[in-house]
Design a protein that fits this description.
136 residues; single chain; mainly alpha
Length: 136
């Protein structure tokens, strides 16, 4: 009878432990599933925020790059404008010098021609006088 009771007790204890083990496993699985769900929600929210942050950082870097390019192009254009202005100034100076020299040359030519013209008139007058003298 004791042996039968002992076996029955062992069966009951094994059944209890088996049930308890199944209950604990079920609770463990439920908690694990709940932890995964609780972890996945913030993780998904963080992932989307992290992705948005990465996009903004990428756009900011792109903007910074574009700003640097624009500044470099502005410097190049300013240098080109300065060079162009310098060339225009040099061309104006050359034109002014040329016009001044041309005016000086014209004045000199007029003076030269004026002097020569008066000499030519004197020579013509002398020649006329000679011709008149010879004819007379």
């Amino acid at each position: 009878y004791l042996l039968a009771k002992k076996k029955q007790f062992e069966k009951d204890i094994n059944a209890t432990f088996t049930g308890l083990n199944e209950n604990l496993e079920s609770i463990f699985k439920t908690q694990q599933k709940s932890r995964q769900e609780h972890h996945s929600m913030p993780s998904q929210m963080f992932e989307s925020l992290y992705q948005k942050w990465l996009d903004k950082v990428g756009r900011a870097r792109e903007q910074e790059h574009l700003t640097l390019l624009a500044q470099q192009q502005m410097k190049i254009l300013q240098k080109a404008v300065e060079d162009h202005e310098t060339k225009i100034e040099n061309a104006k100076d050359l034109c002014d010098t040329f016009l001044k020299k041309a005016k000086d040359l014209s004045d000199h030519r007029k003076a030269f021609i004026g002097g020569e013209e008066s000499e030519v008139k004197k020579e013509i007058s002398k020649a006329q006088d000679r011709v008149i003298m010879e004819t007379v």
